[in-house]
Amino acid sequence: MARNKSKSSDKLGLGLKIFVTVLVLATAVVYIWSVLNNGGNIIAGLFSPLLIIILVLVLMTPMIISMVKDMKHELPIQDEMSKELMTKSSSIAFFISIYYLLAIAVFEDRISSLLGMTELIARHAVELGIMGMAIIFAVTYFIVRLRMSKK
Amino acid sequence: MKTRIKEYRLKRKLTQEELARKVGVRRETIIYLEQGKYNPSLKLAYDTAKALGAKIDDLFIME
User: Fold this and answer.
1) Complex ipTM value
2) CA distances from A116 to A43, A69, A109, B4 (A)
3) Interface test with A, best of B26, B28, B30 (most A CBs within 10 A)
């Protein structure tokens, strides 16, 4: 009974992750289509939304592949160790992200001059924030996992 | 922490995947448990011991 419940929650979790990835893919297609239609360059700008989309896909794809593999072998796709790993890395990444966002706000002028812009417009700040948070989470997850395997 | 999970698993002629299925965890967790790199919850320790027909004390050796 409990195993069936966890199986259905596993399926729900996997379904949600696939849904988000498909959503990101669809956004990428719409973005590329709209940029090309307006005669623009897809990789224009350091903080192109395309970079964010690629980053999300790079993070999600291996996770989904590993989940599908586990499901095929009738193993749970999440257990107490993976949940602990995710909780630890999320909480650490959350605190680092707060300081990172604060740093963007405080050093706004320096960042904009570093990027060759006169000022950091809201859109670029948001893109910089999202991309940075995604990178912070990926690095934190990798480090927490590495530390666990070196114990 | 040292564990004797591998020793007991091999005695029972179980693969890591089979043990993972019995206990209801991912294979990766069994690998980490066998290497003593993961401190399991009391429930997981109990389930592992039960699946291997051993006592918790026999499987986990605190140093």
Assistant:
1) 0.81
2) 17, 46, 11, 60
3) B26
Measured distance CA(A93)–CA(A85) in Å, rounded = 12
Q: Where are the domains of chain A?
A: 1-76, 79-151
Task: Please report, for residues A2, A18, B25, the alpha-carbon distance to residue A61 in angstroms, rounded to integers and kept in the order given.
Answer: 29, 9, 21
Q: Is the pLDDT of residue B13 over 80?
A: yes
Residues A137 and A149: their CA atoms lie apart, in Å, by 18
Measured in whole angstroms, how far is the alpha carbon of residue A88 from the centre of its chain? 16
Q: B39-53: buried (b, 16+ CB within 10 Å) or exposed (e) per residue?
A: ebeeebbebbbebbe
What is the pTM assigned to this prediction? 0.71
The pLDDT assigned to A109 comes to 85
Interface contact flag, B26 A80, Cβ < 8 Å: no
Cβ separation B26–A70 shorter than 8 A: yes
The predicted-structure confidence for A19-34, as pLDDT tens digits, reads as follows 887 887 777 777 777 7
Tell me the chain A residues in contact with residue B21 when contact means C-beta distances shorter than 8 Å.
73-75
